[in-house]
Structures are given as structure tokens and as C-alpha cells.
Amino acid sequence: MQNNYILSHRKAEPENGILYLVGTPIGNLNDISQRSLNILKNVSLVACEDTRQTKKIMNKFNISNKLISFNKYNSSIKIPNLVKDLKEGKSIAIVSDAGMPGICDPGEDIAKTAKSQGIDIVCIPGACAAITALVSSGLPSSSFIFEGFLPRKQKERDKILLEISKSKKTTIIYESPKRLKKLLKELFDFCGGDREIMVARELTKKFEEHIGSNINEVSELFKDKEVVGEITIVIKGINKKEVFNLDKLIIKKELNELINAGLSLSAASKYLAKKNGIKKSEIYNLI
Ligand code: SAM
Fold this sequence. Notes:
CATH architecture of the largest domain: 3-Layer(aba) Sandwich
Radius of gyration: 24 Å
Strand content: 15-25%
Number of helices: 12
CATH class of the largest domain: Alpha Beta
Low-confidence stretches: 1-8
Largest sheet: 5 strands, parallel
Helix content: 40-55%
CATH superfamily of the largest domain: Tetrapyrrole methylase, N-terminal domain
Distance between the termini: 67 Å
Shape: elongated
Bound molecules: S-adenosylmethionine
Strand order of the largest sheet: 3-2-4-1-5
Order of helices and strands: HEHEHEHEHEHEHEHEEHEHHH
Structural class: alpha/beta
Number of strands: 10
């Protein structure tokens, strides 16, 4: 029935010469769709981030097909060959280890090349950790910002953290469990402890957890724990009044940093007053 609907506006899938970006589960293998299975079974070849991972899905659903490796280390070498195959009429599926290809996973570059060469790209939608976390967070979800993994270089990281702290929209971040506590500390420094967040752990899996409610409480909960499993963080945006309070928080943080670096209170306040276009006395009021 579902396939009839699809077939009513497309030919039988897979079609020759089409690049399929196929979403796969982010933990629970039952989240795979009939349409994805059909594509994985019937395309000319499946290009996978890790063939061992994709084999787990293929084995569970008793399907087999030609698998080749396609990941960030070999994609620049493989893309020209895959494009040649597509132009010769083969159908190709791209799958990552979990979730949607192209979302912090291989897929983006081949889609870009295929588009530039006039090759049709069809996405077979599947699970995505960002969307799954957002929808289950109870935070505003119709308009949001997805940051993926924050940069590792502190300067670039701080720039994005500052943007997140002032964003009126909900923000979604991916983070490794090893770095979650560092990220929570940074979020505290930039957003304050009262900002609502939700840490989604092991989505769709047996030990799925949604850990809220604000940065203070979540940091406290993780304080003495080893963080394991896959993590997505959802952060609430702020309103105008909160932006004002946040500016004060950031100025206060900068003031402390300048004083710790050796400036006098008066010199630091003068500098920050000029930088932020406010009176020196307002800076004094903050402390
Ligand atoms: N392409 C994937 C998608 O569509 O969500 C994301 C791949 S990215 C390399 C992996 C990151 O996604 C993990 O480090 C984690 O932040 C997040 N993630 C993936 N699966 C998750 C899960 N089951 N629960 C929570 N976060 C998950």
C-alpha cells in the first residue's frame, strides 16, 4: 500500500542512474523502513561508511547486496568512480553507520558532486538523532538551529557558544560522551545555569534517557558519573529580557577574566564600558 503510493508518482524503485541517500536506524533496527530495505536490496551497489555496520542491518532483514566502503578517508577517491557508475545507469545507495547520511556523516560531498553533474538524488528518509532529540525535548521545535559537533578549537568553539547563548531558537548539538562534562561547563559559562536543556542519551535504544531540566541540574546529575552512550543536547532559546540578563552575565565573566589577567577593576571596567557602549558605573553595579 505504502509502495503503491510511492509508485504512483515514481517508477518502480530503484531507478537506474539515481543516487539514493538512505536513512538507517540510530539504535533500534526496527526503525528501518520498508522502502529503505527495498532500496538496499535492489540497488546496483550499497556504499557504506562501515560495511560491518551495514551488514548487521542486511543480516537482520535477510537481504544481501554488493557493499563497498565509502567514508571520510576514501570518499575523494571513490566519488569519481561512483559518479561514473551512476552515469552508466547504475543505481547507488549511500548509507552511514547510523541515521541520515549527510548529517555529520558521509553523503554531503557525493550529493554535491552528483548535483553538479545533473544526476538525480533521492533521499529515503530515516531516523536522525537531532530530530528525534528535538521532538522529544518538549522545547520549541518548529524553528531551530542544528550545530552538529562544535569545533574543537577553543576560539571557534567560543564564538558558536556565544551565538547559542544569545539565540532565540532552540539549538541542537552532537557531543561525544567523553566531552559532555566540558560542554556543560562551557554552556554554564555562556548561558548561565538556569537555561533549559535536555540531554538525550541512547535514543531509540534499550537505555534511552531524556535528562533535563536546566544546565545547573543536568551538570549536577552528571557530576560524579562516567558518561557513556550516544548523546545529543537540546538547548532552549531565550527571549529579549533574557538576552539583556545574559549580556550582563557575559560582561561579568569578561570582567573577572580581565582582573585575573592583572588589570585593575577600574581599568577593566573602563575597557568593558567602552566595548559595550554602557556607563562604567553600570559595570561596577554588576559586581
Ligand atoms: N547521521 C547521524 C544522524 O542522522 O543523526 C549522526 C551521525 S554523528 C557521526 C553521531 C552523533 O549523533 C553521536 O555522537 C551523537 O551525538 C548523535 N547520535 C547518534 N545516535 C544517537 C542516539 N541513539 N542517541 C543520542 N544521540 C545520538
